[in-house]
Specification:
The chain is about 25% helix and about 20% strand. The radius of gyration is 26 Å and the shape is globular. Among the domains are: about 1-45; about 330-450, no CATH class. It has helices at about 5-20, 25-30, 30-40, 60-70, 85-95, 115-120, 205-215, 255-260, 295-300, 320-330, 345-350, 375-385, 415-420, and strands spanning about 45-50, 75-80, 100-110, 130-135, 140-145, 165-170, 175, 185-195, 220-225, 240, 245-250, 260, 270-275, 310-315, 335-340, 365-370, 395-400, 425-430. The strands form 3 sheets. It has a 14-stranded mixed beta sheet with strand order 1-2-3-4-5-8-9-11-13-14-15-16-17-18. It has a two-stranded antiparallel ribbon with strand order 6-7. Helix 10 (about 320-330) crosses helix 11 (about 345-350).
């Protein structure tokens, strides 16, 4: 019995979602009727991967055939590069199909200069391009997502999706432009980890890019040496009506950077001391810390966001206790709290003194707590929540002094152990020796199964 083509096309969609690279070949080799149906299904061939090996005369028959079979369907192109494009690849594959690109991924193994050079092979005019992900091993990441419905007028058509490029192609004098004069427009996501770029973006570059896309931006992430700020330069805060997520990894004073963001609807905030807790593998070297962040000013800036659902603080300095207490007590909507080497915040969270009202965080579901030596305060926090019938956390991950778990040392009673066990549906304990080599991102949980 032969299935109608429309039924087969519906099935192809499920098969394709499992493996976009091999599925088209698998489907087309199954039988004659499936092959005929597959050849008439352009979306099946629209996910294309090119691996640029060391051979400059490399033939790209598979990619060429998929470009042709995709017909006029938008293309999702992935390029894994161990060399730069040849002239033939540019003229025969890249330029003729650039106008059809919807998503472009470039993974480069060529070092810090390669990402701008590879990107420069593409024309500026790519009207369908809504997403770019660039990775230059091991330190540079760029991720831009633009609203799919956003199209440009003739005057805006030159707006590049990527905020860096090349200005001078003289091989003896390459001039890298970190941020082009044409800023991206209508972006929903900006991710920059530019540690390996030839030129780091300045705060002026970042402010210009953010200002140009503030009305649509939803997620912003930056990790690397803090963009340079002249001491006499001041920037106006930018209104972000839809921004819900900010993640900044920094090395120097992050306060001027954070002051860019006037985002009343912010739901997620992650602040990481890039020098001590990088989420991206980096080559060991000395970064920043010439202008340390003032804890009081930092707390004053983040205190504007009281409706957070997720707060992650990684290796930040000592925060003022009273002001920190006041801020924590305002976080009634908080569901996820990550305190990784944020000892002062952790101590205040779990201080339940008689002269202070209890901190309960009534909507908290997940807590990562690294403050070994303050286990008793954590127990007080869990007991206070239990006494107010708030129920157990979904997930509790905590570093703990092994001696604290040793009943023979007299530091842990049976009641205390029960508090830990009943304080959350999922409990993970680890010691201060074991988490040093663990990347903080591994502790970013999603939905926790009970």
């Amino acid at each position: 019995m032969r299935l109608p083509y429309d039924v087969l096309w519906y099935m192809f969609g499920f098969i394709l979602s499992d493996d976009v690279s091999r599925s088209p070949t698998t489907i087309s080799h199954l039988c004659r009727s499936w092959r005929l149906a597959a050849l008439q299904t352009p979306f099946l061939w629209s996910h294309i991967t090119m691996v640029l090996g060391h051979d400059m005369n490399q033939k790209n028959e598979l990619a060429q055939s998929r470009f042709e079979r995709a017909d006029n369907h938008p293309i999702d192109l992935t390029i894994r590069a161990r060399r730069h494009f040849s002239d033939a690849e540019k003229s025969q594959l890249i330029l003729p199909n650039a106008h059809r690109l919807r998503r472009l991924t470039i993974e480069s193994f060529l070092g810090q200069f390669s990402l701008p050079l590879l990107w420069d092979a593409f024309p500026r005019r790519m009207p369908l391009l809504d997403e770019f992900y660039g990775l230059s091993m091991p330190e540079t990441r760029v991720h831009m997502i633009r609203k799919p419905a956003a199209r440009f007028s003739d005057s805006e058509e030159f707006s590049s999706l990527i905020p860096f490029g090349l200005k001078d192609l003289n091989p003896h004098r390459l001039s890298f432009v970190t941020c082009d004069v044409y800023c991206p427009k209508n972006l929903t996501t900006i991710v920059l980890a530019p540690t390996g770029l030839f030129l780091q973006p300045t705060l002026s570059d970042i402010h210009r890019i953010l200002s140009g896309t503030a009305s649509t931006l939803q997620h912003f992430e930056y990790e690397g040496p803090t963009p340079y700020l002249c001491s006499d330069t001041k920037y106006k805060p930018i209104e972000f009506p839809d921004l819900y997520s900010i993640s900044i990894g920094y090395s120097d004073d992050v306060v001027p950077f954070l002051c860019f963001f006037k985002a009343p609807g912010l739901k997620r905030l992650d602040l990481l001391s890039f020098k001590h807790s990088p989420t991206t593998p980096i080559i060991p070297r000395t970064y920043g810390q010439q202008i340390p962040t003032n804890p009081k000013k930092l707390l004053r800036v983040i205190s504007q966001w009281k409706s957070l659902h997720h707060l992650g603080l990684f290796a930040i300095g000592e925060l003022p206790a009273n002001a920190t207490l006041q801020y924590i007590q305002c976080l009634d909507s908080l569901e996820y709290l990550v305190l990784y080497h944020a000892h002062s915040f952790a101590k205040v969270l779990c201080s339940q003194g008689s002269n202070k009202s209890s901190i309960l965080l009534p909507n908290l579901k997940n807590l990562l707590y690294t403050a070994a030596g303050y286990e008793s305060q954590l127990l007080s926090f869990l007991k206070a929540r239990n006494s107010h019938n708030l129920g157990p956390l979904e997930c509790l991950v905590v570093d703990i002094d092994p001696k604290f778990l040793d009943a023979r040392a007299g530091r842990l009673s049976v009641e205390d152990l029960d508090v830990l066990r009943t304080g959350s549906r999922f409990l993970k304990l680890f010691t201060c020796q074991s988490y040093v080599s663990v990347e903080p991102q591994q502790w970013f949980w999603g939905e926790t199964s009970v």
